Amino acid sequence: MCASVKYGSRGPALIPRMKTKHRIYYITLFSVVLLGLIATGMFQFWPHSIESSAEWSLDRRSVHDAPLVRIPMSSPIPERGDLSCRMHTCFDVYRCGYNPKNKIKVYIYPLQRFVDEVGVPISSTGLSREYNDLLSAISDSDFYTDDVTRACLFIPSTDVLNQNSLRIRETAQALAMLPRWDKGMNHLLFNMLPGGPPDYNTALDVPRDRALLAGGGFSTWTYRQGYDVSIPVYSPLSAEVDLPERQPGPRRYFILSSQTAIHREYRVELERLKEENGEALLLLDKCSNLSQGLASVRKRCYKGQVYDYPQILQESSFCVVLRGARLGQATLSDVLQAGCVPVIMADSYILPFSEVLDWKRASVVIPEEKLPEMYTILKSIPHRQVEEMQRQARWFWEAYFSSMKAIGMTTLQIINDRIYPYAARTYEEWNNPSVVKWSSVNSPLFLPLIPPRSPGFTAVVLTYDRIESLFRVITEISKVPSLAKLLVVWNNQNKSPPEESLWPKVTVPLKVVRTKENKLSNRFFPFDEIETEAVLAIDDDIIMLTSDELQFGYEVWREFPDRLVGYPGRLHLWDHEMGKWKYESEWTNEVSMVLTGAAFYHKYFNYLYTYKMPGDIKNWVDAHMNCEDIAMNFLVANITGKAPIKIFQHRHQCYPCFPFSSTLSASFFFLSRSECINKFASVFGTMPLKVVEHRADPVLYKDDFPEKLKSFPNIGSL
């Protein structure tokens, strides 16, 4: 700037002495330089950030084009790693914050090439194809964000999958140079091949401060439970060899061993088992008569006979997976892909994703010292159980092992479940194949006894602005002996509820909850105010139900607490002409749904409806302002595999049940309800509703008996 001032002060004295052509030349040159400086300044100081705007994609940026970063020898080195780290001590969950989708946001650092002071790279291989696939999958997922300020989790673009290719000290220094490192807080590293000769540590040797480690060979000594994530060692054969799924059942061999670099003591013991059991056990090794290369990797031999690998794995019921120099073995992935039950013998090994996967359903884990007894142990497993394990093994591979994308997404989902535990996947979601989820249902409540009568039920009344009918409903419900609390869900954001002095006087607590949006799903929200197990969902215009009828409904629910127990019944039918489902409200001998305008259910289903409803059903209901009752019937039937319980046919007609002023509006209503049923069946992948031909009536309901001797005298009749 000083130079410019001097030039400016001398300029007027010099320019008049210049010739015209020289003056034009210098003015033009000065203008070009000035425009260049202005453009450069705008680019430099325009409000943007490399961190927040650079999307991670190798399609847009070549590894060779990545900026070169030199690491000074004096750069700080992170600490070795804190074995005491847990999510509540070394992870800042507040950075994740609240978001409606309950999903963490992951930021990937832009690609950089780190070298030391003399220009030697920190890695001998650079960016591997596997790590490229992993980062690309994350960048294409819902977890990814390119805004560093929104990120909950940070992933370096430095590839540490294989420790053998790394310079330990320089790699640690490169990590510490990351702008958001902060002692590794909220950073995630992926490593599949830890340690090196001679000891082969079971965790990455690169000092990493507090960073989480997704590791492929953890032992119980190095695994930080609830913090690190144990991942599989990816097998390249997963992408190169297509093994079609084979139906479970008996196979040619009972036990097969295909590993080529196992300890000599183990091989001697396997050979002894082979001698004892003959053709039931196939013991393979590498082929000595084949030249080294890709062909030899896909071959195994036994006494000169050559077998294709991994295809041969499909010919055995059980496949041995022994520890090698490292605990984690890519063989495990190959075995699962083949649908062969892995027999894992690697003491202290933390199985991949064992935080959420039930390995007892897909494998047999045997202590190494029990290797001589392996054949006897496996023979004791029933054939049907073996078939189920074969099926489960194949599904584990398809869902969690088959690609770097599957491994990466599973890792992030596990971390996501820790941060948002109320929206976490259930055991069934992690461990049940999709075909099993809908066909093998069970009661989610596990109630061994009838729920006690003393707690009673909470009546949840959904209302908008029908004050008169609302007060009539409250007055009638308050007469029910088992009522414990009244909860009014005020769904009108443009109008305040009536003053407290205007509400009916009741003997139980009455609470008004104001919602932020007018959504039908608000009636099924798991409010903290609901302290009883039983919930009565009732509309503000169901004024015809008597206290006896409501009390009887509650008594029925106590005997069937995992069911929907309600009054108005409905039916779904298959329309053969249209080739789809339709909604039916005519009085028939069958029922498959009860309307939740007046129905009892367990409060657990509020949680499922709000946080576990499949697909976009909940949002679809709120957008169309219809069919929340049908959605709840689908949910309960799908979870329990049971039909609802319908209470006696009521003698009154409720005007909200027939709110039509014309045949046209009635037709539109039934068409929209039929559309709901078909939409929900498509999302669930099946039709979970069950049709029944029975209902619940009091014992003396129709008997010619004095009313005063009946437990529920004031109930409807046919």
From TrEMBL:
<keyword id="KW-0328">Glycosyltransferase</keyword>
<keyword id="KW-0808">Transferase</keyword>
<dbReference type="GO" id="GO:0005794">
    <property type="term" value="C:Golgi apparatus"/>
</dbReference>
<keyword id="KW-0464">Manganese</keyword>
<feature type="domain" description="Exostosin GT47">
    <location>
        <begin position="101"/>
        <end position="381"/>
    </location>
</feature>
<feature type="domain" description="Glycosyl transferase 64">
    <location>
        <begin position="457"/>
        <end position="701"/>
    </location>
</feature>
<dbReference type="Pfam" id="PF03016">
    <property type="entry name" value="Exostosin_GT47"/>
</dbReference>
<comment type="function">
    <text>Glycosyltransferase forming with EXT1 the heterodimeric heparan sulfate polymerase which catalyzes the elongation of the heparan sulfate glycan backbone. Glycan backbone extension consists in the alternating transfer of (1-&gt;4)-beta-D-GlcA and (1-&gt;4)-alpha-D-GlcNAc residues from their respective UDP-sugar donors.</text>
</comment>
<dbReference type="GO" id="GO:0046872">
    <property type="term" value="F:metal ion binding"/>
</dbReference>
<feature type="coiled-coil region">
    <location>
        <begin position="256"/>
        <end position="283"/>
    </location>
</feature>
<dbReference type="GO" id="GO:0015012">
    <property type="term" value="P:heparan sulfate proteoglycan biosynthetic process"/>
</dbReference>
<dbReference type="InterPro" id="IPR040911">
    <property type="entry name" value="Exostosin_GT47"/>
</dbReference>
<keyword id="KW-0256">Endoplasmic reticulum</keyword>
<dbReference type="InterPro" id="IPR004263">
    <property type="entry name" value="Exostosin"/>
</dbReference>
<dbReference type="InterPro" id="IPR015338">
    <property type="entry name" value="GT64_dom"/>
</dbReference>
<comment type="pathway">
    <text>Protein modification; protein glycosylation.</text>
</comment>
<keyword id="KW-1133">Transmembrane helix</keyword>
<keyword id="KW-0812">Transmembrane</keyword>
<keyword id="KW-1015">Disulfide bond</keyword>
<dbReference type="GO" id="GO:0015020">
    <property type="term" value="F:glucuronosyltransferase activity"/>
</dbReference>
<comment type="subunit">
    <text>Part of the heparan sulfate polymerase, a dimeric complex composed of EXT1 and EXT2. Could also form homooligomeric complexes. Interacts with NDST1. Interacts with GALNT5.</text>
</comment>
<dbReference type="Pfam" id="PF09258">
    <property type="entry name" value="Glyco_transf_64"/>
</dbReference>
<feature type="transmembrane region" description="Helical">
    <location>
        <begin position="24"/>
        <end position="46"/>
    </location>
</feature>
<dbReference type="GO" id="GO:0005789">
    <property type="term" value="C:endoplasmic reticulum membrane"/>
</dbReference>
<keyword id="KW-0325">Glycoprotein</keyword>
<keyword id="KW-0472">Membrane</keyword>
<keyword id="KW-0479">Metal-binding</keyword>
<dbReference type="GO" id="GO:0050508">
    <property type="term" value="F:glucuronosyl-N-acetylglucosaminyl-proteoglycan 4-alpha-N-acetylglucosaminyltransferase activity"/>
</dbReference>
<keyword id="KW-0175">Coiled coil</keyword>
<keyword id="KW-0735">Signal-anchor</keyword>
<protein>
    <recommendedName>
        <fullName>Exostosin-2</fullName>
        <ecNumber>2.4.1.224</ecNumber>
    </recommendedName>
</protein>
<dbReference type="InterPro" id="IPR029044">
    <property type="entry name" value="Nucleotide-diphossugar_trans"/>
</dbReference>
<keyword id="KW-0333">Golgi apparatus</keyword>
<comment type="similarity">
    <text>Belongs to the glycosyltransferase 47 family.</text>
</comment>
